[in-house]
Amino acid sequence: MSSQPAMGVDEAIRTRRTHKVYGPEPVPRKQLDELFELARWAPNHHLTNPWRFRVIGPNALARLKDADPLGAAKLDRAPTLVACSVVQSDDAEQNEEDVAAGACAVYVIMLAAHARGIASYWRTPAVLRSRAGRAAAGIPEAEHVLGLLHLGYADRDWQPPGREPPARFVTYLG
Ligand SMILES: Cc1cc2nc3c(=O)[nH]c(=O)nc-3n(C[C@H](O)[C@H](O)[C@H](O)COP(=O)(O)O)c2cc1C
Questions:
Q1: How many A from CA of 1 to the centre of ligand 1?
Q2: CATH homologous superfamily of 23-155
Q3: Which of 37, 50, 39 has the alpha carbon at shortest distance from 111?
Q4: How far is the CA of 122 from the centre of ligand 1 (A)?
Q5: Biggest distance spanned by C-alpha atoms of the chain
Q6: pLDDT value at position 1?
Q7: CA–CA distance, 6 with 124 (Å, rounded to integer)
Q8: Spatial distance between the Cα atoms of 30 and 38, rounded to a whole number of angstroms
Q9: Distance 174 CA to ligand 1 centre (A)
Q10: Between the CA atoms of 162, 164, 166 and 168, what dihedral angle is there, to the nearest 10 degrees?
């Protein structure tokens, strides 16, 4: 049985914000499972299901910190971390599409989390670009890293950074 999101799609899109400060309470596994179940409905060409999500447990977190001692403190900012990546093949076109599909899946998680009162932060820490960091998170060489998704419960609202009006980026061609 899934928990019912408290808001509609438009409101979720407008009011989701990147949160960088979280309380200590991790997101329960049941809720994470619900978010991953939703992620798999993201569009993906040829139904490659290219996304991979690895929930960082205590041992993996320790390995990540060892891989980048300088960035270690930042890994404690959120109680729940998910390494997000996509499987890559020898087909460059498919790879490009799969990265796009994977980004859609990450956004599905962020929106669905927000609608359930769970805050998020899509981060691209240097540690996941390093061989040691990827190994710490169990990400094979053949996967493209999308980022480290921070999830948790935030106690304050953030103002949205300004956005350009559609007229700046939309062209209706004749
Ligand atoms: C692919 C991607 C990577 C990001 N990486 C970082 C990051 O490494 N550090 C950071 O502070 N924010 C990162 N962000 C979050 C953006 O900074 C944030 O979405 C932006 O400031 C807009 O704020 P909002 O999410 O509240 O609308 C990333 C966002 C995306 C989509």
A1: 32
A2: NADH Oxidase (3.40.109.10)
A3: 39
A4: 6
A5: 57
A6: 44
A7: 29
A8: 13
A9: 34
A10: 170
Q: Within the chain, which residues score under 70 in pLDDT?
A: 1-3
Give the domain ranges of the chain: 23-155
What pLDDT is stored for residue 155 in this prediction?
Answer: 79
Question: 15: Cβ below 6 Å to ligand 1?
Answer: no
Which ligand 1 atom is nearest residue 19's CA?
26
Minimal CA–CA distance to 127: which of 96, 83, 86, 88? 83
- Pocket of ligand 1, candidates 75, 109, 123, 127: which has the most ligand atoms within 8 Å of its Cβ, to mutate? 123
**Amino acid letter, residue 9:** V
160 in contact with ligand 1, CB cutoff 6 A:
yes
Cα 56 off chain centre by: 12
Residues 6+ apart with CB under 8 A from 19: 119, 120, 121, 150, 152, 154, 158
- 83 token code pair: 């390494």
Whether this model's pTM surpasses 0.90: yes
- To which residue do tokens 């359930």 refer? 116
